[in-house]
């Protein structure tokens, strides 16, 4: 009887983490699109979100330290610049380009193109040897790629500039989440806690995105009547308030993403977004009035079939060839989990103090 109860507890926890991620992911997508209608400075908005994330992460770390009585991890400059910087820069460009694309494309095209991140995560997982090659992966790639082509073919609201931005963001997202998983699973770094990871990433993300902001938006923003040259104080306060709300959503989304990745995997994060993407497309069609043809919907369905096939294959191989997957642990403790893992031994591999901190967050 212990096994079914333990399985149900883990399943309920996973479902709870996924739903927690859905709420903030869907919310910030529509919120940023709404904000970009009047505030055309996506890179500045992203920088504000990063600053808020850093402040909230620092406050949460201080509260955790008082609660547990244990000092928080602080990386050396050597580890920080060599091991955290690549993840930070990839994350900053992924988020920045994603927000930037809202100036040009609809939510439906953004959502569909972003789903191609599974391909890039899969590619980089093979490069970093976090996943094992599989002949069925060719079919998965063909389904997702053809679905994306059908969705964008003869689309009445297609914008090439925005599409390239999101596609590049998806490519960087593949690097981002692969490196994030490796980073969080390096035992010697001690960044298994999502808050510690966010705290260390935000400063380098800010520095990496700031030059691009200065080049594209610095001069125009300094002369904008939305903020610095507003004729009334209420206008500036309203702008700051809307940006701050987005920052709170971004912090909650970042935390839910990191929590889901740390407890499952980066590929699980992308795969769990299948139903979320369906919800976003339905909401975009009926709320934002995005126009989608039958061919577009068919392309989306083909893409979902490719992602679902990959889920089924990974589940099958994880159950029937578990030992072969776990051979990856020979490459070091930091590569202990493949990008999609059933997490059967998670409770045994997690440290007791880390579980205590995660319980604080979950409550």
TrEMBL record:
Residues 340-363 are annotated as: Disordered. It is a multi-pass membrane protein. Residues 345-363 have a biased composition (Acidic residues). CDD domains: TPT_S35C2. The chain crosses the membrane at residues 12-31, 43-64, 109-128, 135-153, 159-179, 199-216, 236-255, 267-288, 294-317. It is found in: Membrane. The keyword Nucleotide-binding does not apply. The keyword Electron transport does not apply. Its main location: membrane. Residues 15-309 form the Sugar phosphate transporter domain. Keywords: Membrane, Transmembrane, Transmembrane helix. GO terms for cellular component: membrane. This is Solute carrier family 35 member C2. It comes from Betta splendens (Siamese fighting fish).
